[in-house]
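Page 42, continued from yesterday. The earlier attempt failed because a stray header line got pasted into the input along with the sequence. Redoing it now with the clean sequence only.
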Amino acid sequence: MVAVGGWADAGETGEVAAGAVPGVDVERYPLDEPGGERWMDAVRGARAELAADGCCVLRGFIRPELLGTLRIEGVALAPQAYYTVQDVNAYNIPLDADLPADHPGRIVLRRGNAFVARDLIPREALIHQLYTDTRFQRFVAECFDLPELHEYTDPLAGLCLNVVAPGNSHPWHFDTNEFTVSMLTQEPESGGVFEYCPNIRSRTAENLADVRAVLTGEGEEFIRRLELRPGDLQLFQGRFSLHRVAPVGGTLPRHSAIFAYSDTPGLIGTAERTRQLFGRVLPDHLAAGEVRGDRLLD
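This time it went through. Structure tokens are written below.
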């Protein structure tokens, strides 16, 4: 049964109990025991993976009976995504930016993925409940070994659904925010593999030659590939790791929820990037000064 508006009927796909951490399998990931021994075991495991290559996947993070809810909610939201095919570069800066001839920012990529913005995602949606849950935020912060994390201030990009239709991809790029948390909600029939280059740049060094090698197909040694399943939670340091979603095959689109946090409060995307991703900007994007913890190109 599907409720009015496309939302799953909780009685069929699983219920989020009052006071529970929304959807989380607390037997495997005890977010209901903040600071406890089992909590710290999970945190230490995530920190070790992040230290190794900037990426950690917590398999089966969402309870199995709620995977249907994730999928149905994503399917209901997907038609509201901003769909457009655009020529972009890995830094999401203007293509006519004044850059040296051999700069990787001059390499044009085709972006065919779409985003449902935060202001279109209902508060009762499971991904919205999880994104704003303070226990979830604390757990994510501790996994990244940070004293706290802040919800992305951007009114459109803080939480969004990424939709990649068959035949399209989300091309190579760097994230604006340092700490990205995401979750596949619908897997495609084929393709759509997450590919990334761990720490290919740093806070102080762009490492342009290595980035260019990946973008031109000559940097295979930098690339790692990751198969994700619905309900897996991915913690990723995408500010410094070039990454993409490879082209999707089959007939089903790839859906993933993106939970954007930062260790710096007040982070808002640039007007240029916001137009690329959502097809619109709000007064916040035009009025707010950019807050960055580094001086990297994007």
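Notes: Residues 20-287 form a domain with the Jelly Rolls fold (CATH 2.60.120.620).
Reminder to self: strip header lines before submitting.
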